[in-house]
Fold each of these.
Amino acid sequence: MDDTISSPARPAHRAARGHRWDQVELRPYKEDERALFKTVSRQILFSDPKLDAELRYFEVEPGGFSTLERHEHMHAVMVLRGRGQCLVGREVRDIELHDLVTVPPWTWHQFRAAASEPLGFLCMVNARRDKPQLPSDADLVELRKDETVARFLGADAAE
Ligand code: MN
């Protein structure tokens, strides 16, 4: 039998129920202990050595947020559930179902779910990528000079 066709490790079709995919592990968002984030889960939907990209689904619970970070690699994001806001560089945008967000290289970014709704999104990245950089105290002071950005970051990123 040719197990490349039916291998459970790499099935041709994985069913979805809600925003959970069959045979896709629900993982913690990050193992990085330096990172500041709140109530985010991660599912890796597509990842294969023969692909140069990975497609992941992240879900931020109501009131939660992803890590404020930057890195050389890019993100291509599509909102699949709920609503919230994102920070990309100095821009804060309201985001909702099917909105697209591009995060260019070396651009500070963070995703926040609305207080009463989760925020779920697909995120495409390079398979091989650099490690995220976290903001220094000086970076945070610089970011907070912009009133809109300061309001977006709230008290959470103050540490
Ligand atoms: Mn990132």
Amino acid sequence: MNNFDVILIGSGPGGYVAAIRCAQLGFKTAIIEKYSSLGGTCLNVGCIPSKSLLDSSEHFHNALHNFESFGIEIGTPRVNLEKMIQRKNEVVEQNTKGVNFLMDKNKISVFHGVGTFISNTKIAVKKEDGSSEELESKYFIIATGSKPVQLPFAPIDKERVITSTEALNLKEIPKHLLVIGGGVIGLELGSVYQRLGAEVTVVEFLDRLIPTMDGALSKELQKVLKKQGMKFSLSTRVTDVIRQGDKVTVQAIDKNGNEVSFEGDYCLVAVGRSPYTKNLGLENVGVEVDEKGRIKVTDHLQTNIPNIYAIGDVVRGAMLAHKAEEEGVLVAEQLAGQKPHIDYNLIPGVVYTWPEVAGVGKTEEQLKAEERKYKVGQFPMRALGRSRASGDVDGFVKILADEVTDEVLGIHIIAARAADLIADAVSLLEYRASAEDISRMSHAHPTYAEAIKEAALDAVEKRPIHM
Ligand code: FAD
Ligand code: NAD
């Protein structure tokens, strides 16, 4: 009964997608999840709940600031935070229940409890009530994800000094939210509370926001968020976080070497996430980890123990749900004897601020570092009829193409609906389009996507039509 072909440990987007693909390929499959709810970080305390609150806060922001100019008079809107959080919880529940349904439909056995390796063919599942059962399998796929990085001088008290998990469940809107880290989480959750009326100050160690994305996007995003009221202190090294009652003080050294301090009532620590392998019993089987605690894997996502694989946030690479999913599918198909492949250069990155930010392929900084000769095409959203109609005039599309062959090497967008537009960009790079190819494709009018064609025209011959 408790003997399987493949066991997944962790039910996030890596684990549950891998389980489905394994079951589709005919493997007898089980999944172990330590929490009662399936879906991992992404569905429970990550992608889905944050997007629900981003959407709620965006509706509020539009009602407060934009409806009137669109000819809609509703009086002064008010926030019901409790209801907003309740709706978010309902959205999470719909999604996690959806995963339960998919497990049933694909006849995947689900075990709730902490999975700990006993040997390379046996794993113990320790349940909350203290009982334990043993499962056996030919193959294992570790998909245990990640947890927030903590700063040694800023212990998370889950009340005032918080991680993203608590920020998704606040009981009140902060008066002044201090955010340590100007990365994806800091800017997305900072945007939520800024739109709901909080003062938000972001303290970032580096000299730019969203440091892994194209530098032009960082600059434009900072400009737009500043216009929305968010404050920034870049090149600032946080040295201490002190909580006194309802007050939190962040002490830091600014870019000129001066001591500075910021006072608020909540502090969100969003300085990255680290791989999670606690209680997995890796030492019992000898699975190796690297200096950052990530499980070491080959290009085929195989660990040093041949029948144990690892995917998602717990291994090297971007910590993104869709990257974890692709890796889950890759391992399942390999086990079935197929020869799948992932092009990591074509995994898009998205930030769900407004406007949204998205990029795929090489950034200009990467091309410079590679000393590759390239050309740039750029087109501002404000020149489009679609943008003027919706009032979303901030941002641009930037295309990087090889100077000689014209092959598109990177597409970087900051615009309304950039998160959806980037799918087109991925296809263009996957099929190795040239900038001229794009410039000769019909783009429906009026759409935000027209900016991609115009940026391509700019890259080809500096001849956009609408500028
Ligand atoms: P996880 O989703 O972390 O799942 C791991 C699971 O393993 C967990 O459920 C955990 O309980 C379980 N587990 C751990 N150890 C054991 C054990 N020993 N036994 C049994 N179970 C165990 N990514 C995006 O692509 N888009 C977004 O919009 C986005 N938004 C995010 C917003 C926030 C606030 C956060 C925090 C993250 C966000 N991410 C987003 C990142 C995304 O959530 C992760 O990249 C993704 O969840 C990784 O998937 P995973 O399957 O590797 O691990
Ligand atoms: P991140 O790596 O995106 O950003 C962390 C930021 O904190 C960086 O800019 C870094 O320079 C800064 N930083 C680090 N130490 C600091 C310090 N001591 N003081 C000040 N700043 C400091 O990490 P995150 O925002 O915590 O997100 C974690 C992961 O979750 C990311 O890898 C991201 O991919 C994923 N995520 C993705 C999405 C999305 O896809 N939309 C949304 C949320 C989270």
